[in-house]
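Quick sanity check, Phosphonate transport system ATP-binding protein:
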Amino acid sequence: MLTLRGVTKRYPTGDRALTDIQLTLPKGQVMALIGPSGAGKSTLIRCVNRLVEPTQGSIRLEDTEITRLSGNALRQARRSMGMIFQEYALVDRLSVMENVLSGRLGYVGFWRSFLRRYPEDAVAEAFRLLERVGLPHAIDKRADALSGGQRQRVGIARALLQSPKLLLVDEPTASLDPKTSRQIMRLIRELCAERDLAAIINIHDVALAQQFADRIVGLRAGEIVFDGLPSELTSEILTTIYGEEDWDTTPEPMDDEPAAAPPYVPTLQGLAAGGAR
Ligand SMILES: Nc1ncnc2c1ncn2[C@@H]1O[C@H](COP(=O)(O)OP(=O)(O)OP(=O)(O)O)[C@@H](O)[C@H]1O
């Protein structure tokens, strides 16, 4: 349903961020995009909705050749791709409901949205979505009164109000604690399953990616170096993606430290044993 062929991005500075990316994402598939800083993950996600212009290659969403569009047609195509951001991108002084409704800005006319008059069906759907993401009691709260996890739930509801065909998710858990991160990833996964919605999730946390994605794509220096199932992600493959590291050990307490519980560090072994929290 989403197909990338030969996508290359070279920034005007000369940085080559992506090289000849070939990728097909079927309907309903949740794909995690992992890789070290600077590997090109954000660039790839942003090329799909053309927030970043690919230098070469083609991007197709169902029957629409995204790379050929401009003006109104591009705006329309972007509506079919919901974006969820690391820093939530909410308007702090607006209520939760108004933030969610802003997901419809591309549909209602400028004056209507300026006057904040949204069609009844959009308001009804926003209520349903806020209920679904677990925020039915926060509808009238200002966005800046919410916790990080609640803000991300608003971001998810806003993206879904667009009725997207595809979700583009950029480090959704980077600012969240481990438990909230898991809840957010679980929510995204469940919503994708309920709606047969495909998602590309750019994420640094490999354990979360393994736990909640159907497929993992590893980028290194702008190239795909792994594309497979979460269960296929071995230490060797992690080394191919990120470089040399001892992936299977957890830190030992120092001799003079009390034997407190070690900090949670997900390991492949722990995950295989179902030990991830
Ligand atoms: N606007 C830009 N202008 C020039 N170079 C850029 C720009 N944005 C990104 N780059 C370069 O493109 C490469 C890929 O960057 P990108 O942000 O896509 O990587 P990333 O994998 O998302 O990194 P991170 O995990 O740190 O967010 C890097 O070398 C980066 O310096």
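Posting the structure with no commentary besides this: The pocket of adenosine-5'-triphosphate is lined by residues 11, 13, 15, 17, 35, 37-43 (CB under 6 Å).
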